[in-house]
């Protein structure tokens, strides 16, 4: 049986770029958005000089529109708290389509 839920794995700090790289696993929906925010902010708090947070979303099995909204809210928080940029990488086609459908593509930095 596959565990339900959400978690952040493998945080990597690159001090030369002031970049934190995290990987997301599981699902990101309405029941998981608070955990996403709490875990990501707690991880970012460990790196007060961070300028970029690269989020690998390739391990997410499911993302809802509420999950995309949480990513946008977290992007705003990173800007206001650390003046940091949020980047998404390994964005799977269904997630990319949802981002496009919701009209958030111009606001998110998506890297390969």
The largest sheet has its strands arranged as 1-2-3-4-5
Shape label: globular
Contiguous low-pLDDT stretches (5 residues minimum) are: none
What fraction of residues sit in β-strands?
Answer: 25-35%
* Helix content range: 25-40%
Total count of strands: 5
Description of the molecule:
The chain has 112 residues and is of the alpha/beta class. Helices cover 36% and strands 35% of the residues. The chain has 3 helices and 5 strands, in the order ββαβαβαβ. The protein has helices at 33-44, 65-82, 93-102; strands at residues 6-14, 19-28, 52-63, 85-89, 109-111. Strands 1-2-3-4-5 form a 5-stranded mixed sheet, covered by helices on one side. The longest helix is centred in the middle third of the chain and has 18 residues, at 65-82. The chain is globular, with a radius of gyration of 13 Å. The mean pLDDT is 93.
Q: What is the structure about, briefly put?
A:
The protein is α/β, with parallel strands linked by helices and 112 residues long.
List the helices and strands and how they pair.
Elements: E1 6-14, E2 19-28, H1 33-44, E3 52-63, H2 65-82, E4 85-89, H3 93-102, E5 109-111
Parallel strand pairs: 2-3, 3-4, 4-5
Antiparallel strand pairs: 1-2
Helix pairs in contact: 1-2
Q: Which characteristics define this entry?
A:
112 residues; alpha/beta; five-stranded mixed β-sheet
């Amino acid at each position: 049986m596959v565990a339900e839920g959400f978690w952040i794995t493998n945080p990597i700090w690159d001090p030369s770029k002031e970049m934190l790289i995290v990987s997301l696993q599981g699902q990101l929906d309405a029941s998981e958005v608070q955990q996403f925010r709490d875990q990501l902010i707690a991880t970012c708090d460990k790196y007060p000089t961070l300028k970029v947070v690269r989020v690998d979303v390739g391990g997410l099995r499911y993302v809802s529109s509420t999950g995309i909204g949480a990513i946008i809210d977290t992007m705003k928080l990173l800007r206001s708290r650390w003046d940091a940029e949020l980047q998404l990488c390994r964005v799977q086609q269904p997630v990319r389509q949802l981002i496009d459908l919701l009209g958030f593509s111009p606001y998110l930095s998506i890297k390969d």
